[in-house]
Amino acid sequence: MPAIVERRAQLYVAERATLASPEFPRLADRLPPLIGTLAAHGVAPAGAPFFRYRVLHPGMRFIVEAGVPVDGGFAPEAPAFADELPAGRYVLETYVGAPAGLAAATASVLEWGAAEGVEWDRREGPDGEEWGCRLEVLRSNPLEVPDPAQWVTDLLFRVAGS
């Protein structure tokens, strides 16, 4: 069952893409080089990598970021950029399984929120549904946990008014 948690603001470095679900590996494949760039500059990740969904376009297209939390400032070279995840109250649900099940897990969280009267930090924009902060935090390293059925992903959705 989802829980509401408080999160502090978190700096991060990321790359952004507009893509459809089948194209998602193109962005996911940017995480290892991004982590490598940080390491080459002596910057250790300050947490697990994540995907941040910025805009959900009609027709299952997304503006999404592949990000890595960092402590302190780091100015990456384009196409990477630095930003900050906002502090606030978030709904947290932990999903265990292959990425193919994330859409259903997300739908369950959104349905739970609707039943509980949760107002999400989102609005309708000119290009689709814009989220203040909606994350998939990748808790499992595929090199250490090769079976996707055992991967752990935290789903985090910022609550309005946080």
Notes on the protein architecture:
The protein has a single domain (3-158), classed as Multidrug-efflux Transporter 1 Regulator Bmrr, Chain A (Alpha-Beta Barrel). It has three helices and ten strands, in the order ββααββββαββββ. The chain has helices spanning 24-28, 31-40, 102-116, and strands spanning 3-7, 10-20, 50-57, 61-69, 81-85, 88-96, 122-125, 128-131, 134-138, 152-158. Strands 1, 2, 3, 4, 5, 6, 7, 8, 9 and 10 form a ten-stranded antiparallel beta sheet that branches. The longest helix is centred in the last third of the chain and has 15 residues, at 102-116. The model has no long low-confidence stretch (mean pLDDT 95).
Structural class: alpha+beta
Provide mean pLDDT, rounded: 95
Query: What is the number of E strands?
Result: 10
CATH architecture: Alpha-Beta Barrel
Strand content: 35-45%
Q: Termini, distance in Å?
A: 21 Å
CATH fold node name: Multidrug-efflux Transporter 1 Regulator Bmrr, Chain A
List the uncertain runs: none
CATH homology group = Regulatory factor, effector binding domain
- What are the secondary-structure elements, in order, as H or E? EEHHEEEEHEEEE
What level of helicity do the residues show? 10-25%
- CATH top level class name: Alpha Beta
> How many domains make up the coordinates?
1
Taken from the alpha-carbon principal axes, the silhouette is globular
